[in-house]
Amino acid sequence: MLYFLSELSDGGDFFNLFRYITFRSGAAFLTALVLGFFFGQPLINALRRWQKTGQPIREDGPPGHIVAKACTPTMGGTLILGTLGISTLLWARPDNGFVWVVLLVTLGFGLIGFIDDYLKVSRQNAKGFSGWLRLAFGFSIALVASLYASAFHPDDLSRQLAVPVLKDFLLNLGIFYFPFAMIVIVGAANAVNLTDGLDGLAIMPVMISAATLGIIAYVVGRTDFTEYLDVHYVPGTGELLVFTAALIGGGLGFLWYNAPPAAVFMGDTGSLALGGALGVIAVVIKHEIVLAIVGGLFIVEALSVIIQVLYFKCTGKRVFLMAPIHHHFEKRGWGESQIVIRFWIISLILALIGLSTLKVR
Could you tell me which residues come within 8 angstroms of residue 85 by beta carbon, excluding any fewer than 6 positions away? Predict the structure, then answer.
């Protein structure tokens, strides 16, 4: 919205700053951060008054959680989505279609998560929205997003899978690209959702992944960078840096209240939305495989659940003491903060590896 102030510029004044993605990204970050700090506590107070007993805690979870996390309100993801949405609308170019598709996918998955959280709180049951129904809505949103993104990709990239490290190599998936893109988006949403089990565990890796994808989006949206790095040019994606900056600002504002011991949980409202955002950004910038590297922590968390369930059904035994895998380490005696910080470190290392794929060709 504020981008149009650049039209008041004669080329050398203050209003000219609004033309620059980097300036608007910094402003989006600060806007979301300030809004998060300002509205965080009032939102938590309102959630406490409404929810009273807070988020239902899994009875089969670590015993300490039943006491330590009792009466902690959920749906804190509304703080992230609110600050992210306002900042993006203020500072991103409203005529950029990629910004709209990423924002709408994020809000769409946030709505699915909100319904899930609402049912859990109102019924005081850890089982909320029907899993199959949640997947159906998620895949529907992902299908529309993948069709839209493919339609606005250059002809030489549409329905193609770019493979990192391999220069100028594209795998033509044809019509099968859409199911693949849907799996990327829905898989990312649910993987982040599974990771969100400890105070501060999910939000920092999400911010690290968003920062990485935002940098890549900015790079692949500029011809000078793509020519130098020999990566594929996707016009218009640079504007997604504004979105990811707003996400990081809103995420930091939320982390202020979510740091151990958490005053609020993001809930499915936040985790599904943020995971969906990462997935659709990767699809838009044609770096789906790089997302698997950058978001490797989320994949491990999701795989630990899949392996545990399948192995238990086949043998009646468990591979991990508890899944997702962060609970396995809790059962082994690791402290919550110890797990969280070590997982943050792993996420940062994976992000650096993902960024290095831009140069390694």
Answer: 103, 107
Work out the pLDDT band at 61, boundaries 50, 70, 90. Answer: low
Report how far residue 16's alpha carbon sits from residue 9's, in angstroms, rounded to the nearest whole number.
5
pLDDT at 197 > cutoff 90: no
Q: What is the CA radius of gyration of the chain?
A: 20
Model confidence over 110-128: pLDDT tens digits?
A: 999 999 999 888 877 767 7
H-state helical runs in the chain: 21-51, 63-68, 77-91, 97-123, 131-152, 177-195, 203-220, 223-229, 240-258, 267-284, 288-294, 296-315, 325-331, 336-356
The total number of structural domains that make up the chain: 1
253 domain-assigned: yes
Residue 361 is assigned to a structural domain of this protein: no
The tokens for 265 are 């949980």
Q: Quick one: tokens of 281?
A: 């950004």
The pLDDT value given to residue 66: 47
The sign of the torsion formed by the CA atoms of 70, 75, 77, 83 equals: negative
Range of the domain at 234: 2-356
CA–CA separation, 289 and 164 (whole Å): 7
Contact indicator for 343, 334 with CB cutoff of 8 Å: no
Q: Has residue 321 been placed in a domain?
A: yes
Reported confidence tier of residue 12, pLDDT bands at 50, 70, 90: low
Q: What is the pLDDT of residues 223-260, one digit of tens each?
A: 999 999 989 999 999 999 999 999 999 999 999 999 98
Residue 75 falls within a domain, yes or no? yes
Whether the Cβ atoms of residue 350 and residue 297 lie closer than 8 Å to each other:
yes
> What is the rounded (10 degree) CA torsion for 75, 78, 80, 81?
140
